[in-house]
Design goal:
The protein is an alpha/beta fold. The chain is built from 9 helices and 6 strands; from the N terminus they run H-E-H-H-H-E-E-E-E-H-E-H-H-H-H. A 6-stranded mixed beta sheet has the order 2-3-4-1-5-6.
Length: 198
């Protein structure tokens, strides 16, 4: 909506793979979703003169009325040399070299949003969450009106406990590779041990 109404607005989207940003006909890609949003706008909200073939290019969508732009990039250098109003990093916990991305984006924007599924407590993404210096929004399955306890019980039956904890319950410890003990079991054991000491 900023792209529609804010002159000169620039949004950047970055991901580890180009296909996650823009792949023709793939609903998984971010730009597929942006194009669908524009396609379904009421006529009175569409930018005058907007033509798909001219203004909806590969990893770039231009609003001809106000020169607002949505751009996309992939890899380690997303955002390098760019200036954006806002920059969104998709699946930030899964970037191959996240510190290179952090460096690339360091002077790109004053508003960066990292979005991701959990990928363990050892990632820079988790470190940012755990530090408590930044506002964090968690979209838990209980916040989704389409999902209820029956849905959760179904997931619990279908999924491996570690996958359930990581992908559904947003448990960063579950996602840690090479765990021999469940994180919850370790915490329970520590609590039992400390109660014996007292």
């Amino acid at each position: 909506t900023y792209w529609l109404f804010e002159p000169g607005f620039v949004a950047g989207f970055g991901s580890r793979k180009e296909e996650y940003i823009d792949k023709q006909g793939d609903p998984k890609s971010i730009f597929w979703r942006v194009r669908k949003f524009i396609e379904y706008l009421p006529l009175e909200f569409k930018p005058p003169g907007f033509l798909d073939r001219k203004h909806s290019l590969f990893m770039r969508i231009i609003n001809p009325e106000n020169n607002a732009v949505i751009t996309g990039e992939a890899g380690d250098n997303i955002g390098r040399g760019d200036r954006t109003t806002i920059y969104v990093v998709d699946e930030a916990a899964f970037l191959e070299r996240p510190l290179l991305v952090d460096a690339s984006l360091s002077a790109t924007t004053n508003c960066r949003i990292d979005i991701s599924t959990s990928n363990g407590a050892g990632t820079p993404f988790y470190s940012k969450i755990a530090a408590g210096d930044l506002p964090v929004f968690r979209f838990h399955w209980t916040d989704d009106p389409r999902k209820d306890e029956l849905w959760y019980k179904s997931q619990k039956r279908k999924l491996d406990p570690v996958i359930l904890a990581q992908e559904v319950d947003i448990d960063h410890n579950a996602a840690t590779r090479d765990n021999f003990l469940d994180g919850g079991a370790v915490e329970e054991a520590m609590m039992l041990e400390s109660s014996k000491v007292e």
